[in-house]
What we know:
There is one protein chain. It is built from 10 helices and no strands. It is mainly α. It has 2 domains: 15-60, no CATH class; 72-153, no CATH class. Helix 1 packs across helix 7 (95-103) and helix 6 packs across helix 7. It starts with a helix and ends in a 9-residue tail after the last helix.
Amino acid sequence: MIKKTLLAAAIIILPATSFADGPGCGLGGTIFEGQSGMGAHLMAVTFNGTSGNMTFAMTSGTSGCDVNEPITIAAIFLESNMDQIAENMATGNGETLEAFAQLLGVEDADLDTFATATQANFSTIFTTASVTSGDVLNATLGMMKQNDQLSKYAI
């Protein structure tokens, strides 16, 4: 229950943190392109969220989405939860690690594989005590690319 609440909060709240950079990609970003102000941004984000077009735009690289851009929500979530994710990766389980995996697109059937792989590669992912969230994200994606079962999720 907590993981679903955490995931829902990340999906609902974290896009709001990107208002300074614009409403992002998707049809909402295209429709409200060039407009400024909180109202236009809220309308674009709301349109993207309620119409479900963002998923298509992100996977197809249309409506201003670049599939080569970093995974923003996962990166923001990781940055906000570094200590908990480190603990979860070290033990090979935990709700925060599961939520992080889901934000990376890992399906439920592969969550155990993700947890086991991150635990096995913990020292490669968390290389130092002062590692950045960007480094952790890149190392996690690199590890996923090397894993036969998880490579389909790595960009």
